[in-house]
Amino acid sequence: MLKMYNLPCQIAGTDEAGRGCLAGPVTAAAVILPKKFKNKLLNDSKQTKEEDRKSLKEIIINESISYGIAHVYMEEIDEINILNASILAMHRALEKLQCEPEHIIVDGNKFKPFRNIPHECIIKGDGKFLSIAAASILAKTARDEFMKKIHQEFPMYNWQQNKGYPTKEHRQAIREYGSTPYHRKSFKLLPEQLKLSL
Predict the structure, then answer these.
(1) CATH number of the domain that 105 lies in?
(2) Does residue 44 have a known ligand-binding role?
(3) Per the CB 3.0–4.6 Å rule, which of 96, 119, 153, 187 could disulfide with 104?
(4) How many C-beta neighbours within 10 Å does residue 115 have?
């Protein structure tokens, strides 16, 4: 039987999306790109227009050596905290790769070892390395799709627009309608949660 590990896999980039949101999962992706991969549009997902992200998603899926995407949902975030959930999402995305990388590069400054594979944390890595930028695009587009889907269930929070981030509009909707099963209970959903009424 052919071993997947013999494929030309060198570096996997990984990144997450949705860490600072009040609702929805934290989503991560891991991507291994061919050595000669180039694309002028590819950049940190936060610096990329939505229509460009959509076309980049298709390019990355079709041209990458391998990719994986994983969600960690609200209940697990509340149980293990958002930092651990972000790392867990990245681990789960790495597990979905069809071949084992020789090295992992991670956006940010926190990670836990994965299968004894050497890793490096890179601050703002999604603006420096193509494979991390590609992972940020896949994580962001997958999470946005999830938020648009659950928007149909709870349109009053306008998740198709704010994606679960703590915008004024989102917080106002929480004041008016309360929280939903998609909200992270361990997060401070409203600033006044910490104030005592005297």
Answers:
(1) 3.30.420.10
(2) no
(3) 119
(4) 10
